[in-house]
């Protein structure tokens, strides 16, 4: 790991030297963090571990161009369960263009290719993913409207029936007032379909020798398609030149009567497999208070209250219950604290260094035995821009 960090650091400096002499801009970031999670599997029985995260990012922008290219490599390691270590590769591109009267409107488009790799013991996590988006933002004399569409294709290498296609449409309105208040209203529509599996069965349809007839039938095991509708409202208020707060309400409605949940503690590292966002209805309140302190120091304190009603998943009252008592419901409360300080070095090969401390606490109360848990996590890190 130390050798890898050293090589990446050298590569970043080398690219910046090239950028100094070329008509292009390279931005290189190295994010190193480590922390302790006391309930790694979000389980009724806690298992803690020390987690380290090595994240390398590279942005490339040609001179006088509206195009941005980037690469993000992320390696996550676990001290006690190293067989769960994760490596993520992400290649992407983005494009923007101003248009309209005085170029006050914006058009955005782009996409990325993401691949995830686990060791052999957990290779069912492995997937490849294509993500594409196209957005427009309109400035209507102080009222900002943003609309767009994004598409995602995710292919699981070892769980092919969960390979899926995801579509989202959204519309957002943003208005600011002289009282330093901003109001955001957004609506989203999401649709998710699965590839499923097909089984081919061949059988002899009669006859002998050259005259025998082979018949083939196909049986399909289709995972149900799912869709939901989201309403979001946020009010942000500047309390002081250096203090701001927002309060948000988010409501999610399911548009399908059946979902195919695969929620399992063995999938905890992947939200889609552990707790698919399409598998429940929800209502959530959240808030965040931000302090911009002297000497490039920042403090954020936030939290949320979220109620989830699962569409198809049953609740079990004990470890021995195999019958269930109806559909699962969860009430989740969380708080978090993020503290950071940035040092602007203005060195030729080192632009800035940001140190940070993050803490979060989660309580999940469920009518299903398996999902009653508490979780504390704390981490420290440094983000280097060179």
* Main CATH class: Mainly Beta
N- and C-termini, Cα separation: 20 Å
How many β-strand stretches? 18
- Percent of residues in helical segments? under 10%
What is the annotated CATH architecture? Beta Barrel
Evaluate the radius of gyration.
25 Å
Mean pLDDT: 87
Classify the fold: give the CATH topology: Porin
Strand content: over 45%
Order of helices and strands: HEEEEEEEEEEEEEHEEEEE
Main sheet specs:
16 strands, antiparallel, barrel
Shape: globular
Number of helices: 2
Number of domains: 1
Structural class: mainly beta
Unreliable residue stretches: 214-219
Instruction: Name the strands of the widest sheet in spatial order.
Output: 1-2-3-4-5-6-7-8-9-12-13-14-15-16-17-18
Short description:
With 386 residues, the protein is mainly β.
Describe the structure in your own words.
The protein is mostly beta strands. It has a single domain (88-385), classed as Porin (Beta Barrel), CATH 2.40.160. The chain is 6% helix and 64% strand. The protein contains 2 helices and 18 strands. The protein has helices spanning 2-21, 271-274, and strands at residues 24-37, 49-62, 67-78, 86-99, 105-118, 127-140, 143-156, 164-176, 181-194, 197-206, 213-221, 226-240, 243-254, 280-293, 297-314, 327-344, 352-366, 373-385. The strands form 2 sheets. Strands 1-2-3-4-5-6-7-8-9-12-13-14-15-16-17-18 form a 16-stranded antiparallel beta barrel. A two-stranded antiparallel ribbon has the order 10-11. A hairpin with a 7-residue loop joins strand 7 (143-156) and strand 8 (164-176). The chain is globular.
